[in-house]
């Protein structure tokens, strides 16, 4: 792995920076710069960025160098930067510094995180404009049962913080054909115990891609569990996969 660090500065392991269309969530179809940070402590079985998961993957840069790359790579008509991963909160200090910098350029900051650590989330939140709060179901196989309860607690706490701070906040849940409808309903109940429908910018049900893909009937089952309490629910597949974009 190539090393590009300067002593005495915050360093970051960067997987890639590129501009593409937003392929997921409520802002799908918009031009976005993606800053993909390397490293994630999890291994969801449908994860689509396995190359960015190892903690020693990516290239080491100091934050100042990343700022320069962002400035040079920024394309016209890009109004937001998406910090993604891997898991961006693993390198929350770098995200915080980069988000401050990007905001000075008048761009909006989008955080795509698994929300696994509510303390780290609270540190970057003041510099974030758009929060995707992803709630993992057990069939993501992300962790074992005990760790799963802790993960869900953190995800819901991140949701509470995001809506309390009046951020543009939406929910995403990836579902497979094996996802448990009761578990999904329980999560929906928890979400609307924390957030009023008017405080959310959307609820995205994302079908898994090429891994245990859900049938339309299964997807309707999940949709029907949300619609009575929140009619802004949408089933949205990953657009970038369909058109073969990164
Ligand atoms: S948390 Fe995200 S980046 Fe990490 S394994 Fe799961 S899907 Fe992949």
Count of helix runs: 7
- What is the overall silhouette? globular
Residue fraction in strands: 15-25%
> Could you name the ranges where pLDDT drops below 50 across 5 or more consecutive residues?
none
Oligomer classification? single chain
Order of helices and strands: EEEEHEHEHEHEHEHEH
Give the spatial strand order of the biggest sheet.
1-4-2-3-5-6-7-8-9-10
Question: Which ions, cofactors or small ligands are bound in this entry?
Answer: iron/sulfur cluster
CATH domain topology: TIM Barrel
Topology:
Layout: E1 3-4, E2 11-21, E3 31-37, E4 59-62, H1 63-73, E5 80-84, H2 92-104, E6 108-113, H3 118-124, E7 130-134, H4 145-164, E8 168-175, H5 181-194, E9 203-207, H6 216-226, E10 233-235, H7 239-242
Parallel strand pairs: 1-4, 3-5, 5-6, 6-7, 7-8, 8-9, 9-10
Antiparallel strand pairs: 2-3, 2-4
Helix pairs in contact: 1-2, 2-3, 5-6
The protein binds iron/sulfur cluster.
Iron/sulfur cluster binds next to loops.
Q: Mind explaining what this structure looks like?
A:
The chain has a single domain (3-242), classed as Alpha-Beta Barrel (TIM Barrel). With 246 residues, it is α/β, with parallel strands linked by helices. It contains seven helices and ten strands. It has helices spanning 63-73, 92-104, 118-124, 145-164, 181-194, 216-226, 239-242; strands at 3-4, 11-21, 31-37, 59-62, 80-84, 108-113, 130-134, 168-175, 203-207, 233-235. A ten-stranded mixed beta sheet has the order 1-4-2-3-5-6-7-8-9-10, covered by helices on one side. Helix 2 (92-104) packs parallel to helix 3 (118-124) and helix 5 (181-194) runs parallel beside helix 6. The relative contact order is 0.14. Bound molecules: iron/sulfur cluster.
């Amino acid at each position: 792995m190539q090393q590009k660090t300067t002593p005495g500065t915050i360093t970051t392991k960067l997987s890639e920076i590129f501009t593409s269309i937003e392929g997921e969530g409520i802002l799908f179809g918009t031009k976005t710069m993606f800053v993909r940070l390397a490293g994630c402590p999890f291994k969801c079985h449908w994860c689509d960025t396995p190359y960015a998961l190892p903690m020693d993957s990516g290239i080491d840069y100091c934050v100042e160098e990343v700022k320069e790359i962002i400035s040079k790579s920024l394309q016209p008509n890009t109004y937001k930067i998406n910090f993604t991963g891997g898991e961006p909160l693993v390198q929350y200090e770098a995200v915080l510094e980069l988000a401050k910098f990007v905001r000075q350029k008048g761009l909006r900051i989008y955080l795509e995180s698994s929300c696994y650590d509510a303390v780290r989330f609270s540190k970057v939140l003041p510099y974030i404009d758009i929060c995707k709060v992803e709630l993992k179901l057990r069939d993501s196989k992300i962790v074992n049962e005990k760790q799963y309860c802790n993960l869900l607690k953190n995800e819901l706490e991140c949701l509470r913080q995001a809506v309390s701070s009046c951020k543009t906040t939406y929910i995403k849940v990836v579902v497979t054909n094996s996802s448990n409808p009761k578990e999904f309903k329980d999560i929906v109940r928890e979400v609307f115990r924390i957030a009023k429908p008017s405080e959310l910018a959307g609820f995205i049900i994302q079908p898994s891609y090429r891994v245990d893909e859900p049938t339309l009937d299964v997807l309707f089952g999940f949709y029907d569990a949300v619609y009575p309490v929140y009619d802004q629910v949408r089933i949205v597949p990953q657009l970038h996969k369909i058109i073969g974009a990164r």
